[in-house]
Amino acid sequence: MTDQNGPQLTRIQQRNRERILEGALTAFSANGFRGATIDQIAEEAGLSKPNVLYYFGSKDEIHKTLLTALLDLWLAPMLSLDPDGEPLDEVLRYVSTKLDMSRDFPRESRLFAYEVLQGAPHLSEILGGRLRDLVDETVAVLTGWIDEGRLAKVDPHHLIFSIWALTQHYADFEVQVRAVLGPGHDPYAEAQVFLENLFRRMLAT
User: Fold this and answer.
1) Which domain holds residue 71?
2) Is 51 a member of any domain?
3) Which of 22, 104, 138, 199 makes a 20 to 30 Å CA pair with 43?
4) Average pLDDT over residues 116-129
5) For residues 87 and 5, what is the distance between their CA atoms, to the nearest angstrom?
């Protein structure tokens, strides 16, 4: 396996990089970029600070590496939207997948939220470029379905925003959600039922 910079990594080196990124994910998602330190990352990774800095030259480099991987993860469900599929089924599958990701990757969701709340200093070019291009492509697909009468008339951009907001909320505010619901509730299972019903009623023709 090779590093992004080219040199071939041994299995131990690759494993250490993965441990550092895993530790950084915990530190950044809990404290944000400004609050997290190399010492915290090293502690979470179970490595020494010099060892961390051997693999990554700075906290900024670690953060950018995580965010790049996170964006790939976050965009994958939108990339899988099938223009030739049944419109309502495709949108509902996207909603379900985004909610599953909030359940399975809450730290990643919070890391992304922290970055955006800080003005996205490490993602501004990607958000205004790659992400916007993908959203534009998805909006074109949704608009085509709406114009064909296969989905109800809604604003495609705000449909996407609402899906993001209503699914990622369960990861970003999980403590609040669980506190309000109390014991005996499965927030994600209940949300799956509620959100499918909500979007089905909104979009059905």
Assistant:
1) 63-203
2) yes
3) 104
4) 73
5) 41
**In the numeric block, which tokens belong to residue 57?**
């030259």
What is the per-residue pLDDT across 39-53, written as a single tens digit (0 to 9) for each? 999 999 999 999 999
- Kindly state whether residues 189 and 96 are assigned to the same domain: yes
> What one-character DSSP code corresponds to residue 186?
-
CATH of the domain at 164: 1.10.357.10
Q: Is 36 helix (H, G, I), strand (E, B) or coil?
A: coil
Residue 2 maps to a domain: no
User: Do 119 and 155 belong together in one domain?
Assistant: yes
Over its C-alpha atoms, the chain yields an Rg (Å, rounded) of 19
The amino acid sitting at 205 is T
| Count of domains forming the chain | 2
pTM value is 0.80
Task: Give how far Cα 181 sits from Cα of 176, 187, 198, Å.
Answer: 9, 8, 19
CB 66 within 8 A of CB 109: no
Q: What is the pLDDT of residues 87-122, one digit of tens each?
A: 999 999 999 999 999 999 988 888 888 778 877 777
Nearby residues of 195 by Cβ (< 8 Å), 6 or more positions away: 95, 96, 99, 166, 167
